[in-house]
Structure formats: structure tokens, C-alpha cells
Amino acid sequence: MLTSESAEPQEHDTADVVELVDRIVAEELEALRRAFGEGAEFAITRAGRRDETLHRLECPSVEPHLDRRARWTDEHRRRLAADDTYRIPLPALLTRERAGAISGMRGCKVCWPNLSGTEPRPLKRITARGLRPQHAGRVIATPTGESLGTIIRSTPRRGADLFGVEHDEIEVVTSSRTIRYAPDEDVHLWDLPSDSQAIERKLRLFTQLGSGPSPAA
Q1: Closest Cα partner for 62 from 86, 39, 41, 79?
Q2: What CA–CA distances, in Å, run from 82 to 10, 13, 14, 48, 203?
């Protein structure tokens, strides 16, 4: 009777590991480029077998997962040397249609994919006195996330109530209105990447995953 044994993981020396990593990275980048070329707009990352998160593709949390060569740290290479079947989870890139067919997956709190249209918008809360010039361009919102306009400027000033009593206040001019806050009053901002940041990351994605030769090792 003939018997067969299952293949055992093989150990490799340093030169073998370098060559193996090169091959794995090339295969991973090819898979990512193929999905990107098919119109992927979203990504699923995995921190564990059951810990999956849905992101917009330009999400800053996704960027480290797409730099496949950097992912192969010395620790991962040692594990690969001991077991040539070892792999680092590759993010799944999805079109909007495929992502929309997924239900029950946790959405990223950084990029807010909100495919269902019902997920609460991520908000950052600060006091009005904490507003700085760098907040210009951010969307200010109600506590429930409704937009009050994009911040144009915020200015500390002296105001007066109906009885003429003066007090400190922060005047916030937005694209749709002027709002006056007490210095210690809570202000809610959409905690999302700005449009310019999203555009910059999309351009990097086209450079990284668009058609063209693979980057040199």
C-alpha cells in the first residue's frame, strides 16, 4: 500500500528568505493592483481571525497595510524562515458594490465608510477656547453630527448679553453662519480626514497601485 505524508513546513536560510519575501511581495502587489484596477474603493483589514474592519481605500489606517515590503519586518521574516507557508494578512480590496453586499462588519472610525447611510458620524469634542487656526476647513457640527458649516475662522472677543453685561466669547464664522460660544462650551467637529488629505492619499494610491512596473526591491 502506498502512503503519502503531508508536507511539513520548511526552514530556510537568510538568502532563501530574502528571495521568498521578494516573490511573496510581488504576488501580493499584483493581487492589490488587480483589485485596484477593477475599481476597488474600499478595503477590509484584519487584526485577527474575527477582527475585521471596513475602510475607505484612502483611509490613513490602510496605508501601512498596502506597503507590503515594509510589512515584512525581521520578526515576520523569522517566522517565514521557520515556516515557508506563513503569510501576513493581505487587505481585501472591494468595489462599492461588493462592499455594500457585506452586512454586520465594523466600519472604521477614522474614515467613516458609512455604506448603510445610518452609521453615526465620528465626532471630536473640544472646548471653544481650544479652536486654533489649523481647525479652519474642518466641519463644525451639532452634538448629533449635523453640519453647521465649514470653519472659516474663530476669534476670541468680548460680547455682551441682553442686559449689557460683558463676557468672553469665541466667535466662529463658518461657511453657512456665525456662531458664538462661551470659551468653555463644547464644540463638535467632524473627525474625518479633510478633502485635501483624501485627495493626496488617492494620488499616492494611483502611484502605488496604478498600472506600471513594480517598484524596485
Answers
A1: 41
A2: 6, 9, 11, 21, 38
Domain limits of the chain? 14-116+197-209, 123-191
What string of DSSP letters covers 65-94? HH-HHHH--HHHHHHHHH-TT--PPPPEEE
Cβ(76)–Cβ(88) below 8 Å:
yes
DSSP annotation string for 161-200: -TT--EEEEEEEEESS-EEEE-TTSEEEEE-S--HHHHHH
β-strands 147-160, 166-174 pairing: antiparallel
The tens digit of pLDDT for each residue in 152-197 reads 999 999 887 777 888 999 999 999 999 999 999 999 998 877 667 7
d(CA 184, CA 97): 45
Cα separation, 196 vs 129, in Å, equals 26
CATH of domain 123-191: 2.30.30
| Residue tagged 486654533 (cell numbers) | 132
Q: What is the CA radius of gyration of the chain?
A: 25
Per DSSP bridges, beta strands 52-56 and 106-107 are parallel
For 101-133, write each residue's pLDDT tens digit.
988 888 898 888 988 777 778 899 999 999 999
Q: Would you give the end-to-end CA distance of the chain in angstroms?
A: 48
Left (φ > 0), alpha (ψ -120 to 50) or beta: where does 65 sit?
A: alpha
